[in-house]
Amino acid sequence: MKSVLITDPKHPAAGAVARRLESEGYRVFLGGDFTSREGVRASLAATGPVDALILSGHKGYTGLLSDGNCEAIVSAGQENIREAYYAARHYGALMAEQKRGSILFLSSSHAKKPTGINAAYSISQSALEMFMKELALDYGRAGLRVNFLRIGPLEEEEKAFDSLLSPADYDVLTKSPIGRRTTAQDAAGAVAFLLSPDAAGINGACLDVDGGLYFHYMDREYTFKKEADLP
């Protein structure tokens, strides 16, 4: 049986991802202490080597950057990065020994779009995107694939990222080309694809699962012409 570890089960898409992967035959492990070498090795003792590692660090600090709480912002952001580093280093080393495996960052659209209210989260996710590319370059030679999912905004994150400075996350029904929010199930489908043999040629890639929200803003209903009315 294939196995997968999801590092932070508090990510709003983690539950849907776990259920989808279980339905596809994975044994799913959730959570652990990834803040130190000792913590990761304790997790390894419980899980053993895994076929896939999903880095889902979702810690943040709600407050304006101008509030001045530097320690809280830096601490929350560093924790996401530290956990990803230790987990990827140790689990990735075992994957490299086996010459196979996949590492996937379960992240957010806010890796590229400022939140205005949770700088700790957005800054850390942006840093993790570059970390993914470094891992893809390094581990790719050992047969591993490392990719990054920019998801959202999910309904569960609406309050966490609500900000007058960056109001892109509300009124999604008119702003998103698909006319709805991205769901955790959308994220789970993308995860299943990137871990599958169908994605064997995809490494070091960032996949946006946001319905095109940040590709184009719509502020009104749009009516398409009927085919018969086309010139």
Explain this structure to me?
With 231 residues, this protein is an alpha/beta fold. It has a single domain (2-212), classed as NAD(P)-binding Rossmann-like Domain (Rossmann fold). The chain has helices spanning 14-23, 37-47, 70-98, 119-139, 172-175, 184-194, and strands spanning 2-6, 26-30, 52-55, 102-108, 145-151, 206-209. The chain has a six-stranded parallel beta sheet with strand order 2-1-3-4-5-6, with helices on both faces. It is globular, with a radius of gyration of 19 Å. The model has no long low-confidence stretch (mean pLDDT 89).
Radius of gyration from the alpha-carbon trace, in angstroms? 19 Å
Q: Which fold name fills CATH's third level, the topology?
A: Rossmann fold
Number of strands: 6
Rounded mean pLDDT is 89
Question: Can you tell me the CATH superfamily?
Answer: NAD(P)-binding Rossmann-like Domain
Give me the secondary-structure category: alpha/beta
Biggest sheet, strands in spatial order?
2-1-3-4-5-6
* Gap from first CA to last CA: 57 Å
Residue share in helix:
25-40%
Low-pLDDT sequence parts: none
Shape: globular
Which CATH first-tier class would you pick?
A: Alpha Beta
Helical run tally: 6
